[in-house]
Design a protein that fits this description.
This protein starts with 8 loop residues before the first helix and ends in a 7-residue tail after the last helix. It is an all-alpha fold. Helix 3 packs antiparallel against helix 4. The protein contains four helices and no strands.
């Protein structure tokens, strides 16, 4: 079986520039100074609900392993719960 072709540096750089531009556009929508006005009680979903939602449709035995690894430490939780980052 042939080896997968690595991503070219040009494509990676294009994606990086695209992400920066998206960030700039988002900051125009909500300035950094306005982040202090955020109130957690107004969240639509809890972090646990987001994680549970991201587990739907997955292999149950693997979900149990993932939860076990997340429970071992705060770092384990953060590294295994990417769904909670998007907020």
């Amino acid at each position: 079986m042939p080896n997968p072709t690595p991503t070219s540096p040009k494509k990676s750089q294009d994606r990086s520039q695209e992400r920066r531009e998206i960030g700039r556009l988002r900051r125009k929508q909500l300035r950094r100074q306005d982040h202090c006005n955020w109130q957690p009680q107004h969240r639509q979903h809890t972090a646990i609900a987001l994680i549970e939602e991201s587990m739907r449709g997955r292999v149950p035995s693997l979900v149990a392993i993932k939860y076990e690894r997340m429970a071992t430490s705060p770092f384990g939780f953060l590294s295994w719960s990417c769904a909670g980052y998007g907020g």
